[in-house]
Amino acid sequence: MTPTPRDYSLIGRDAALAEANGIAAAEWYSCPIERKQLKELMKRSDGPALRDTAIWIAALVLSAAGGIYFWGSLWAVPFFLVYGVLYGSSSDSRWHEAGHGTAFKTRWMNDVLYYVASFMILREPTVWRWSHTRHHTDTIIVGRDPEIAVPRPPDVAALLLNIFALKSSVTTLKSLFIHAAGRLKPDEATFIPEMERWKVYVVARIYLAIFAAVVAACFWMGSILPAMLVGLPSLYGGFMTIYFGLTQHAGLAEDVLDHRLNTRTIYMNPLFRFLYWNMNYHVEHHMFPMVPYHALPRLHQAIKDDCPEPYPSTIAAYREIIPTILRQLREPAYHAVRHLPDGKTPVPYNHGAIINPAE
Fold first, then answer.
1. Domain-wise residue ranges, the chain
2. Which residues does the UniProt record annotate as the domain Fatty acid desaturase (predicted)?
């Protein structure tokens, strides 16, 4: 018998099912850790983020300068490649950490980085702040989580288009026009508080004004160089966003209340960790989201004996993700199973939704 397709909208059948089954805004499993140690790990500091942000901005300026200087020759390509990744991919982790308010100790520093990085990654700051809050409350709970990157069955064409942020950018542009007109989409109305909605409308108008100014500058100069610096890097430099992002949850269990089962921790090289701001320690981040990015390696050491074996690299993770996604085209209920250490018990699956034959 073919399972009933899941409804990933936030106002449909599975949203009601999640509430009925008690997995909406439910209590999640947390690995045991001493309160004193966790408190120490949660300490915020401006220092690490100031250092890393200064390096990031310097790299952006130098690569942009090289691209401008060599504009019109092939020598500009490597400079814009670096600039694009820094602009269109590493802004994802900066947006994320600043949005949690943990990157810096000083609040206004988090806010500035959050708004700048949100623009660079083509995300509307207020929409995504509340969307991400829901994502943490109901991680990969169908009908509740607005940030499920790979619904089942997967839309492979959309995933391929988003290697260069094509589908997601078109979606964002459509949303900007809706929001600039003073309206929200139905799903957004379920998680954005009434008192925050005016911010959505104002920022949408600011974004559209900036893009209009960039287009005007291109016509005035008779060159796409202004767009190569503002706007287009979100596309041509966005490929690392999806490369990193799919490793977080793609192909893992839905409707469970244990981050060890629906989230991956992956070991990465130092360059990737800088670009991704340690979000490769993703089980740890979801379990204790108030721990700053620079403390996640220490948190990992503290709880790793209670967690599945980390993936040794992103390549190792994709050796699981790609076959799983392809299999889900035929068997939407299938998912990759994370195995806990001997003697560790997972939080039970929600059997009110689709029952996975692999369980």
1. 46-137+166-236, 239-359
2. 75-313
CA dihedral (310, 37, 101, 260) positive or negative: positive
Give whole-number Cα distances, 344 to 47, 302, 311, in Å.
37, 16, 19
Amino acid at 112: V
Please name the residues in contact with 68: beta carbons below 8 A apart, sequence gap of 6 or more.
225, 229
- Token pair in block for residue 343: 């003697």
Q: Within 70-146, where are the H helices?
A: 76-88, 90-100, 107-120, 125-137
Q: Which residues contact residue 287 at a Cβ distance below 8 angstroms, ignoring those fewer than 6 apart?
A: 28, 29, 30, 31, 259, 303
Cα–Cα dist 354/278, whole Å: 33
Structure tokens at 224: 């796409």
**Reduced to 3 states, what is the DSSP secondary structure of residue 311?**
strand
Compute the Cα dihedral for 135, 137, 140, 141 and give only its sign. Answer: negative
pLDDT (tens place) for every residue of the chain, 359 residues total:
556 789 999 999 999 999 999 999 999 999 999 999 999 999 999 999 999 999 999 999 999 999 999 999 999 999 999 999 999 999 999 999 999 999 999 999 999 999 999 999 999 999 999 999 999 999 999 999 999 999 999 999 999 999 999 999 999 999 999 999 999 999 999 999 999 999 999 999 999 999 999 999 999 999 999 999 999 999 999 999 999 999 999 999 999 999 999 999 999 999 999 999 999 999 999 999 999 999 999 999 999 999 999 999 999 999 999 999 999 999 999 999 999 998 777 776 543 333 333 33
List CB contacts of 53: < 8 A, sequence separation 6 or more.
94, 113
pTM: 0.92
Instruction: Count, in order, helices (H) and strands (E) of the chain.
Output: 18, 0
Using CA atoms, how far apart are residues 147 and 165, in angstroms rounded to an integer? 15
CA–CA gap between residue 76 and residue 81 (Å, rounded) = 9
Helices 90-100 and 107-120, axial angle in degrees (round to 10):
150
**Cα gap 119→117, rounded to integer Å:** 5
